[in-house]
Amino acid sequence: MLAMLIAAACFASYRMGVNRGREIGPIVPTSISATAIYSRDYDISDIVKSEQDAKLVIAAIRESVDTDNWDVAGGYAELHYDPKSNVLAVSHVWPGHVELVRYLQSVREFARFGRTLDKTLSDASSNF
Q1: What is the dihedral of CA 103, 108, 112, 118, to 10 degrees?
Q2: CB–CB of 51/41 below 8 Å?
Q3: Helices (DSSP H) in the chain: which residue ranges?
Q4: Of 21, 19, 40, 30, nearest to 96 (Cα)?
Q5: Measured distance CA(111)–CA(121) in Å, rounded
Q6: Which residue, 49, 55, 44, 63, is CA-closest to 107?
Q7: What is the pTM of this model?
Q8: Which of the 8 DSSP states describes residue 38?
Q9: Are 56 and 118 in contact (CB under 8 A)?
Q10: CB environment 105-122: b (16+ within 10 A), e (fewer)
Q11: What is the pLDDT of residue 123?
């Protein structure tokens, strides 16, 4: 019984850490390389409410953030959406992650005005 309680506490702590990590953005690696590919998950549940919303956000990211380096443009950076967890899984170089974090912050700032997602993304992209 005690072992189960300890295991449950460890798992809960782990999940809390994962969720907190998704909220605060990329953690700085111990050695940063401008050319190494880093993978990171981004929680966008506060922005995306449907798969259609996710498609709009992904298109806006690819059109606004480091546009030439996404896989759809022939580059190395990849972005995948998990609808079950509302998470974007991104593989990109470190400067690309930093730019993505800045863009998502801009989207969240414009979302506070209560406009449609289309308008929010348009405003964030034009001011990014």
Answers
A1: 70
A2: no
A3: 2-24, 51-64, 94-111, 117-126
A4: 40
A5: 8
A6: 44
A7: 0.75
A8: E
A9: yes
A10: ebbeebbeeeeebeebbe
A11: 92
Rounded distance between C-alpha atoms, residue 33 and residue 73, angstroms: 23
In angstroms, rounded to a whole number, what is the distance separating the alpha carbons of residues 102 and 104?
6
Tokens coding 93: 């170089």
pLDDT digits (tens, 9 = 90+) for 93-102: 989 999 999 9
Per-residue pLDDT tens for 72-105? Answer: 999 999 999 999 999 999 999 989 999 999 999 9
- Alpha carbon distance 47, 43 (integer Å): 9
Does residue 5 carry a pLDDT above 90?
no
